[in-house]
Amino acid sequence: MPISTTHDVIGPIARTIKDVATALTVMVSSGYDAKDNDTALAPSSARNINYAASIGTTQLSGLRIGVLIDFFDRTETPEVTPVNNAMNAVTSKLAANGVDIIPIDEAIYNATSIQAAFDVQRYEYRELMNTYLQRPSLSGDHPSTLNELYSRKAANGSNGQFLVLPSQYEYVNIALVSSTSNATYLQRQQGIRNLTLALLNTFASKNLDAIIYPEQRNLVVKLGSPSQSGRNGILAALTGTPVVTVPAGFSKPTSDAPIGVPIGMEILGRPFDEQKLLGIGYEIEQLLKVRRAPEWAREVVEVPKYASVPVVAPNSNVSSAYPLGAL
At the fourth CATH level, which superfamily is domain 17-138+177-298? Predict the structure, then answer.
């Protein structure tokens, strides 16, 4: 289900870079899709690549890797300091292994400013969802527009229910009255094009192989918190440049986080240069080796032994228009 063609990105999530490379190999083998215009932009050189085959052939020594200075929060707080410490340790290890670390201190690269100036999700969400809800292939009783979806009231559970988190009220209310014809939307899209060009110019002028920065400027929020904060993923999402995330370290253990809170690092590359990017990511992953299995993954849970697989039937209020409704 779409939110924003400008922001939405698709990619595999896996335990290791090798697994990511294997999954991406399968994904790109599908080729052109008439229902996805972005697949037409991929050059022939980016099709039918076995990304897993070249894993392990990249050398860290001699690489030039940029570090986005403004993608860090340099305040000393329990939520920020662990991230900075982890990233400092990463850059030190990279430098010790022959990587040239290039600081990038340009005003345009500020995640908070980019988010505020170029976020266009609210302008695209309604139109994209309307198209999605009106697909001929979508059967069953369902709203045909986003406005209709949010105007539906639950009546004895028959018409469905939805929940909007308080922190998302503003987002939904603006999305329901905005569109891609808004003047602000057009201005922001021009800004995104300028940002993309600036990023490619940075790669070229500094002769960079990749750019790194913390996935978040602070630790991820605790479960149950109203909203995430400090994210840095906006740059890759808006510019359409490939990025891979690897574990960078952990905060100190606490009662809430017995092995510490995991800290991620994004490695950003040039457009359609995923093969090189995955190679760099793999070498950094092998160099750091900081991944830890969560405590629950170490536990052994006793489960009943069944002579046959149990049958799980849906609740009786599932509409017969859906395949499981007839069970």
Answer: Amidase signature (AS) domain (3.90.1300.10)
Strand partners, 210: 65
Parallel, antiparallel or unpaired: strands 64-68 and 262-268: unpaired
Asked whether residue 76 carries a pLDDT value surpassing 60, the answer given is: yes
pTM for the model stands at 0.85
Q: How many helices (H) and strands (E) does the chain have?
A: 10, 5
C-alpha 61/C-alpha 235 separation (Å) is 27
In the chain, where the domains are located? 17-138+177-298
Q: How many CB atoms lie within 10 A of CB 51?
A: 22
For 144, list phi and psi in degrees, rounded to 5: -100, -10
Structure tokens at 199: 């990023």
* 216: DSSP letter: B
- Is the separation of the CB atoms in 12 and 143 below 8 Å? no
- 303's CB contacts (< 8 A; 6+ apart) are none
